[in-house]
Specification:
It is built from 16 helices and 9 strands. It is of the alpha+beta class. Helix 4 packs across helix 6, helix 6 packs across helix 15 and helix 11 packs antiparallel against helix 12.
Length: 436
């Protein structure tokens, strides 16, 4: 199409393309020998037409837009020539060929492609939307599978695993900063109702050794659909870091604050690891600490198996008796029983089991007042953060044979945190600076 095309000429080109597609559909689908894979054929044929349409449209826009203007350096940009350019898009088949206006700054000599800058095209010709799609595929699946299955097979676009890897590295570094500082809509805290902060950890093989990822899950009281032990959370924010509790604190507190934590009591739930309570002290001055009910059950059950045998009626009865007492604020009663029980055990293994359970409950005595917590309406199970560890870390970063280097692991953790936080991915991408 001529660079000085009119709207009438542009529409005529589109009409010709549609008529050509219509003829091909008639021959292939209506009169063809088989309808098998007709939808796949039409996706490819239709994608080719759409790419041609976009190429013509970009060429026409470039001609109308021109190249003259001011450069970032303050110099004047002047038109140089029309040049062919291949743009990589999300359309099936990916590549769009256009004839675009090219200009150059008279001062810094920097080349200018105005239409490409409007599209947010990067140095390799990928549009902003294809960059996002490729990044998201890499966040969801290993790079080779993201390239082959999610992008080529599902979306009909070819993006190399290496390109996806580069996007994860670049945007992962930005996501690491975003997690701790991203703006979100102000949420006025209601008159009552706490902010829940659940904390846990998981292991990832990084730089040839297993390292702990510390993860926080934050949600408001109104974000859970029911009371009880676990319940269901409808909107949660997740942050995960490979490092110390203090490293997690730097990104956790802004997340808590955005949920209204500066004006609301925090309910902190964890499995009893000492770092959890140290971190809670750092970021939640006004807090209630609760030991996850299901971890308590696991510790009591482990002691019951050692004391009375796996699956025996006596083990089941003893376990249920201790849980009933804890459910009703009876931790002191449980500890008295353990003291008596430990003194009458001849087996070293049984004495050790009793002592370990007693130490666990004594250390967390104020965190197992479950009747008090339930009467206050507090959630007493940390299922949300355990689910987050699975979805953020294990689903993507602990697959068979998977190894990570430090920068790649940190980039993926930041991106997975954004991806698995309610409403954050779109905000994160909208705030992304376009390629220079």
């Amino acid at each position: 199409m001529d660079t000085n095309t009119t709207r009438r000429e542009f529409c005529q080109v589109l009409q010709d393309l549609v008529e050509t597609l219509g003829t091909a559909v008639w021959e292939h689908v209506v009169e063809g020998d088989s309808l098998a894979h007709a939808d796949t054929w039409l996706r490819e044929a239709g994608g080719q037409v759409l790419r041609q349409v976009l190429g013509v449209a970009l060429s026409a826009r470039a001609a109308r837009r021109g190249a003259e203007g001011a450069c970032r350096c303050g110099g004047a940009v002047r038109f140089r020539q029309y040049r062919p350019f291949r743009v990589h898009t999300v359309l099936p088949g990916r590549d769009v060929d256009a004839r675009l206006v090219y200009g150059q700054c008279a001062t810094c000599r920097r080349g200018q492609w105005p239409v490409l800058e409007e599209l947010g095209v990067d140095a390799e010709g990928f549009t902003l939307d294809l960059q996002e799609l490729s990044l998201l595929a890499g966040v969801m699946e290993p790079y080779a599978r993201a390239s082959e299955d999610l992008l080529r097979r599902f979306a009909g676009v070819a993006v190399s695993a290496e390109k996806i890897h580069r996007l994860v590295g670049t945007d992962g570094a930005r996501a690491h900063l975003y997690v701790g500082t991203s703006p979100a809509e102000a949420v006025p805290p209601p008159a009552a109702g706490p902010v829940y902060v659940e904390l846990d950890g998981g292991m990832v093989l990084v730089d040839q050794r297993w390292q702990e990822v510390k993860l926080g899950c934050v949600f408001r009281d109104e974000d859970r659909t029911e009371t009880g032990t676990r319940g269901a959370v409808t909107a949660r924010q997740v942050v995960a870091v490979r490092g110390t509790p203090e490293d997690l604190a730097t990104v956790l507190w802004p997340t808590i604050a955005r949920a209204g934590g500066a004006d609301r009591r925090a309910v902190v739930l964890g499995d009893g690891a000492p770092w959890i309570w140290r971190l809670a002290e750092l970021v939640c001055p006004d807090r209630v600490e609760i030991l996850d009910w299901y971890h308590v059950d696991e510790h009591v059950s482990a002691a019951a198996r050692i004391l009375y045998g796996e699956g025996t009626p006596k083990a089941d009865a003893w376990r249920q008796q201790q849980l009933d007492r804890l459910w009703a604020n009876g931790v002191d009663h449980v500890l008295e029983g353990l003291l008596f029980l430990g003194a009458h055990q001849r087996s070293a293994a049984k004495r050790t089991a009793v002592t370990a359970l007693a130490r666990y409950l004594t250390t967390n005595r104020d965190r197992v007042r479950y009747q008090t917590f339930r009467e206050a309406g507090y959630h007493i199970g940390s299922g949300a953060v355990e689910s987050a560890v699975h979805h953020v870390v294990q689903q993507r970063m602990k697959r068979p044979g998977m190894r990570w280097r430090g920068p790649g692991a940190d980039a993926m953790l930041a991106l997975r945190s954004v991806y698995r936080s309610h409403g954050e991915w779109d905000r994160f991408w909208a705030a992304r600076p376009r390629a220079a």
